[in-house]
Amino acid sequence: MAVEIIVPSLGESVSEATIAKWHKNAGDSVKVDDLLLELETEKVTLEVNALASGIVSQILKKEGENVAVGESVGQITEGQASIEAPTIAQTPSQPTPPQKTVASIQQTAPLTHGPAVQKLVAENKLNTSDIKGSGREGRITKGDVLEVLNTPSPIKTDDNRIERVRMSRLRKTIAQRLKDSQNTAAILTTFNEIDMSRVIALRSQYREEFEKKHNVKLGFMSFFVKATVEALKLIPSVNAEIEGDDIIYKNYYDIGVAVGTPQGLVVPIVRDADRLNFAGIEKEIGNLAKKAREGKLSMADLSGGTFSISNGGVYGSLLSTPIINPPQSGILGLHKTEDRPIAVNGKVEIRPMMYIALSYDHRIIDGKEGVTFLVKIKEFIENPERLLLNI
């Protein structure tokens, strides 16, 4: 009995994915729950596992192809001991023929595909051995040929200085969303700087005790998430968004925390951050970061944030202008903490200073509100006792 390998539901509003990698080949034996392939959506990578034991009898969609929810990408034949792998022009028992010229392709092409495909192959001087067929029994279809013609070829130079790599779906989505943000929102960025002395001292004093009690390390991000929530309560327009001709004010605080992964930047959401204590925030950030690195974030982990925080300081950035994550109206950028001379009560002192930036949508947030929001962040971090005492 043949069991279809179906593209599962990809999450709300996501109907298409790209086959990132097949972990099984045609002819491979599989057991229930074995990993078959990985699908890459606009935000996450999803694993598709076997629903039956048997042999992978067909692979209908190749790596790099786009597929829709509910579409069949292959088949598993239950209980079959072995199967012959799909071929294009010969069976595995036949010797591999020498590379064909255009003339020989024209003579043998009808054995593997129709006249339209034969014409495309001949006109473009293609070699059928370089084309993976997706048709029945591995035959080459017109779509297979068109895909080869439309796929950029690697640029080769004598010294191999240039390599062309197709963008992943995640990278293309990041590029499109960031460009859409710039094209739609009236983005303005304001800056300030924070003396990190007191929060560093507080963290150093209680770090070991905190970790023993809560089984999680005390980082700086929990302070900034707490400070952000309190500032959003004071300046509600920064937590709002534009929808048509309306402004939607949100009375909840789902804070996106940007995480870098090998596949690109993702922004998982710390839900109801205002209801979490410092330990709760640190645990949630740790869990989301781990899932991001392992490629196990779900659509629910990435959807619905009201405001975002990006920490370029972990990579050594001293200053930047972060781009808003639409439909949000603001994003806070954190940067490297660096010892700098500053004036304190009329004297020059060396203090650990951090530049911070707020990029905001000027259509909904006035300059006064944007500046005030950043000043409030500064005040909370420079006086962390206020966060602890909720004043």
Give a topology summary.
Blueprint: E1 2-6, E2 16-22, E3 29-30, E4 35-40, E5 45-49, E6 54-59, E7 66-68, E8 72-78, H1 102-108, H2 115-123, H3 142-150, H4 169-184, E9 187-195, H5 197-214, H6 221-234, E10 241-243, E11 246-248, E12 255-257, E13 259-261, E14 264-266, E15 269-270, H7 278-293, H8 299-302, E16 307-311, E17 330-344, E18 347-361, H9 367-382, H10 385-389
Parallel strand pairs: 12-16, 16-17
Antiparallel strand pairs: 1-8, 2-4, 2-7, 3-6, 4-5, 6-8, 9-18, 10-11, 12-15, 13-14, 17-18
Short description:
The protein contains ten helices and 18 strands. It is of the alpha+beta class and 391 residues long.
How would you explain this protein's 3D organization?
With 391 residues, the chain is α+β, with helices and mostly antiparallel strands. The protein has three domains: 2-78, RNA polymerase II/Efflux pump adaptor protein, barrel-sandwich hybrid domain (OB fold (Dihydrolipoamide Acetyltransferase, E2P), Beta Barrel), CATH 2.40.50; 102-166, Dihydrolipoamide Transferase (Irregular); 171-389, 2-Layer Sandwich (Chloramphenicol Acetyltransferase), CATH 3.30.559.10. Helix content is 29%, strand content 26%. The chain contains ten helices and 18 strands. A six-stranded mixed sheet has the order 9-18-17-16-12-15. A four-stranded antiparallel sheet has the order 1-8-6-3, with no helix packed on it. The longest helix is centred in the middle third of the chain and has 18 residues, at 197-214. It starts with a strand and ends with a helix.
